[in-house]
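Notes from the pairing session

We agreed to fold both candidates in a single pass and log them together. This is the raw record for the first candidate, unedited. Please don't reformat it; downstream parsing expects exactly this layout.

Candidate A
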Amino acid sequence: MSKPRLRSRLFRAHLTVLAIGILTLTIVGWLYTPRLFVLHLRRIEGSNFRAAQIQGQLVDVFQFAWGRGMLWAALVGGIAASSLSYWLSRRVVEPLLEMEEITGAFAAGDLDRRLPEYEFLELTQLANSVNHMAADIQSVEQRRRDLVSDLSHELRTPLTILKGYLEGMADGTIAAEPAVYERLARETQRLQRLVNDLQELSQLESGYLPIAPQPTDIADLLRYVVRRFVDQQLPDAPVQIQLDLPTALPLAQADAERIEQVMVNLLSNALRHTEQGTVRVKAWSRASQIWVAVKDTGPGIAPEDIPHVFDRFWRADRSRDRTSGGTGIGLTICRRLIELHAGHIEVESAIGQGSIFRFYLPI
């Protein structure tokens, strides 16, 4: 059994309202109008005029005239009301039919179409919601394509290197030396790191990666992380790492292991994008928050790219040079970890002036 269409239901609803109105008017008029007419006749009776003599005839004539007038009024009014009801129903239903057509196009993969504004505010609001949904789906679809492209590229390079070395070692063109095994291990670690990042991001977004916040000395944690990076640098390295800490810093409510992961990601990005100059790590307390900032002297980020820095698998430089930027997984993980700590992470940057990534944690 098919369901009735909205246009038919609206039209029938208008006709029902019209019929109830006409029926009510007819019943009330038929019962009340003759009595009111007789009452007024009695008020105008004079000494030489007795309305009682012709009262019955007057009432009959009045009822005939009233009934004929009501018949024409109901006929003309019903036609006019029905036409208006049909017209209004079409004005309401046609935008909905257009929405149905365009959402069908969305389902078929055509995400470029958009709904216009309508005369009714509610329909316009619904159209705007559908347009926003289409834009979001289009963005997600584009990021999905970028993800497949980025992952294909990230996986292809180490797999190609592994295949080349193994084939060379198999046919004897490459000697099985420690340096070769070291290169193979390094490429395997790169694959493992990418897979681990993807798995961790999936757990973060699905809520399956728990954190255990507890009172943590952020100053000691920053000293430890900075020392790890400094020990890996040469004495005459073109980029120097600086640490700026206050004399006393309150304890933060944080999971030390996860905050260390955030700092490693931020410092790695800063060093990778800074050819020369300094990378400065600074911490301070304000109100009930502890702020940590990582500032570099790299090339900076364009203003139009800043809102997308923490997006999944996004990077400003779309070239295939791995040194120009990763897949964006690390910064996305950083943002999610800070949010799980009831904190916030942000970026400030300008072309040619470097970038500042800062976040806060609750004391």
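Candidate B (folded immediately after A)
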Amino acid sequence: MPATFIHQGDAIDHVPDTDLAPGAVVVLADLIGVTTRTIPAGHLGALQLRGVFDMPKATGADTGIAKGQRVFWHPANQVVTTDPTDAVALGHAVRPATDDDAVVRVRLVAA
């Protein structure tokens, strides 16, 4: 059977086990999605797999991120990082973030 086109894939269906607020980052193995609306537990919602989002990052020495730099999501710390250790590929920074910035603008790239 040949492949059958379903849709562009910028978002996928998701039924969470717990309530998800807008902006929740959901890790599904090597795939990351972000909610844009509240998704109650057990209800069908959507995860954005592509797009540009402001996302939290750590602050302090050596936490700056250059524009264009590849970034990762650290699930345990709930922050964007440039260190792939214990993290999942997220996308690229599209605006520089200094050591003092608490957020970085990221372009998600679906795995």
